[in-house]
Amino acid sequence: MIFDKRSKPKLDTVVKSLIPFALGCALFVAACDTVSEGDAEDLIVVEAFLFAGEPVDNIRLTTTTPLNEEDAVEIPIADAQVRLIKESTVYELVSSGSDGTYQYPGGDLIVQSGDLFQLQIEYKGIEITAFTEVPSPPTGTVMSTNLVAIPSIEGNPGALREFIRNRDNALSVTWNNPENHLHFVAVRSPEDDFPDYILPEFIRDRFRGFELLTEPTTTNFFDITLFQLEIVGNYSVTVYRINQEYADLYDSREQDSRDLNEPLSNIVGGVGVFSAFNGQTTDFEIVRE
After folding, report:
1. pTM > 0.85
2. Which residue of 19, 171, 176, 211 shows the fewest CB atoms closer than 10 Å?
């Protein structure tokens, strides 16, 4: 599956995609263990993700109201105490609003390769903790070409549509992955007040930027077809290395939620995942002939 421009995903769409699976398994195990309804409602779901070189603003907390053994309604938690610890230095996070998201407001917290972070959460007497290590970035990230010239739409719109749909004109991004580690790819273009849309059917009232995300993969390449793109101009391509905590959860995704085994998770006192990612970026440009 690829999350493309039509669904307008955010970066955390990919990394959060396993949370419903983890929650479903935990709820089923809780039900089979005859946990009280009140205890089930106290189940805290942690979605905490760090990105090397980027601000800390991808930490979200929710609690649940079970509907049945497999489904639940999430309720954001906006008043918890949340902190990160790195090399004995404590960084207090603040709530970003009512959606349960937390961020670090200062500029002194730097996420780098090899950093070991501890996450601590306190909420209504419940204590949650987790550890994650920032992986090294991928290496050897390169595009098959950094410049693609597409036909002019004025001369022959049909030829343009045929050109961008032709997979022979696709771009490829490749990276080194001899040990088959998990990676995902993000293709982005920035917001533009006066975008040059590739095709008229792509035109919107306002172009808020473009983001195409892949699901995690153990391969070392991803093909970008021109029809997946939206505007003429510059694009960045970032390949993100996924660390072990998220890989463990991803590898257990085939598990039947009715099995009496919870998926691998590094969250103690709750469910979810605390993970970190590191990326290497390259770019390409789309121009008209």
Report:
1. no
2. 176
